[in-house]
TrEMBL record:
SUPFAM superfamilies: P-loop containing nucleoside triphosphate hydrolases. Keywords: ATP-binding, Nucleotide-binding, Transport. SMART domains: AAA. This is ABC transporter ATP-binding protein. The lineage of its organism: Bacteria, Bacillati, Bacillota, Clostridia, Eubacteriales. One of its GO terms (molecular function) is ATP binding. Residues 2-230 form the ABC transporter domain.
Amino acid sequence: MEDILTVSNLCKDYPSFHLQNVSFSVPGGSIVGFVGENGAGKTTTIKLILNEMKRSSGSVKIFGLDNIKDEQKIKEQIGVVFDESYFHGEFKAGDIASILRAVFKTWDDELFDRYLNQFKLPKNKTIKEYSKGMKMKLSIASALAHRPRLLILDEATSGLDPVVRSEILDIFLDFIQDESHSVLFSSHITGDLEKVADYVVFIHEGKIIFDRSKDDLIYRYGVLKCGSNDFQRVDKDDLVRWRKTDFGYEALVTDRDATQRKYAGLVVDPATIDDIMLIYVKGGKS
């Protein structure tokens, strides 16, 4: 399976923040969840991928092409949705179609209308009359209607109710059935990623902490929970990170079953993506 997107040693330096040697890939036919706390570097990385800001160093390949030298050719084949709608409030859905029809050679009016009907988006209302959720659905419909090979989503399901989110996640799953299509999906709603992602990339303070298959995280990682006395007898080499709570300690482990066998009697719960992020961000190794 070839990679649709390859990010290699990407760096961006600001006075108070540094994106440091960010590397990961998005294989064809996959959904890659991109997670991290606010300010971790997710949006900066996405903007660098899209060549919307100048990088300090590193490289980005999309469809095997350089994202700067071949920018126009690449962007013909990418759909992008940010957390806010950038369409002018006075426009209607038909105006959006007229503009994007002139931009994308592969624009499909029939497909766009199908998404408008599916998302119950009124064609006779201006965008300023849309709710936040409706604006987001319009952005998603617009991103999909020119039949891109890669979708890049930055909080694209924020502001949507669970029913609509589920519907959109199904659309994303259908989108990748052909192995020449992929999704890079940055989201704070990690439950959505647990449903659809094949891989999870976790960025923290400008550095990639891990790039793992979702199943590996969900089925192998665990959270050991115990009191202070029990924690003292746990070999710290068995733990990734840990944090003190009001009730004792929580520690992240990479092999839940092995930890449970070694420390019989202690609680080792399955780890959610939220658990992993929380212990990394709030915890430590001392």
